[in-house]
Amino acid sequence: MPRKARYSREEALDRAVILFWSRGYHASSLKDIEQALDMRPGSLYATFGSKQGLFIEALEVYSRRMSDDLETAMTGASGPLDGLCRYLKNLASACIDMDSHGMAAPACMIVKTLLESTGQDTELSVVANRLLDNVENRLARLLEDARDAGELRPETNCVRLARLLQAQMMGMRVFAQRQVDADKVADLADDVVAMLDAYRAGEVSAIR
């Protein structure tokens, strides 16, 4: 009778996300991966093909969770901008909670991968850029919905505003890795929300 796998593929990927998010790709040795996933090298390679294959699958899982978090924030929101504001505050809270409980680093795993792989690993860099493009495109679509609903000025360039918002989100998560009080991270999220509210109220010129 074939031996039953101790962990499912999903459980293995959950563990891989935690390991790679915390330590990064290059700093995670095969021994680290074996211990984290409780799998032997033969099983690892049979299941995922390679360390890089495992990492890319883990990165995709992480990306889907980010997308799910955004969609959850949109559920029940009065409009696209309210949903985005809720997501930003949830993101700040998650960064604070992860830092205080010693979990995976609050900085975005995709951004960390991009910084680590640029100039070293073209394939990982391509994957990270693709996933970040997906985030930017989703933000742009939400902002377009907000513009169509009259929450933003008709002349607003939603692609540029999405790029600005993504940069703010990335910066907030990097800022959360500093040794700062939790309320400072929350304040930063509030400031980004205030920026969106200012665009909504027409208090600042629309990005064209």
Q: How is the secondary structure organized here?
A:
Layout: H1 9-23, H2 30-37, H3 41-48, H4 51-74, H5 80-100, H6 109-117, H7 122-148, H8 158-175, H9 182-201
Number of helices: 9
**Average pLDDT figure:** 88
Shape: elongated
Could you say what the CATH architecture of the domain at 63-201 is?
Orthogonal Bundle
Report the radius of gyration as a whole number of Å: 19 Å
Order of helices and strands: HHHHHHHHH
CATH topology of the domain at 63-201: Tetracycline Repressor, domain 2
Q: In CATH, what is the class of the domain at 63-201?
A: Mainly Alpha
N- and C-termini, Cα separation: 65 Å
Bin the helical content. over 70%
Give the structural class.
mainly alpha
Q: Uncertain segments of ≥5 residues (pLDDT<50)?
A: none
Write down how many β-strands occur, each being a DSSP E stretch of 2 or more residues. Answer: 0
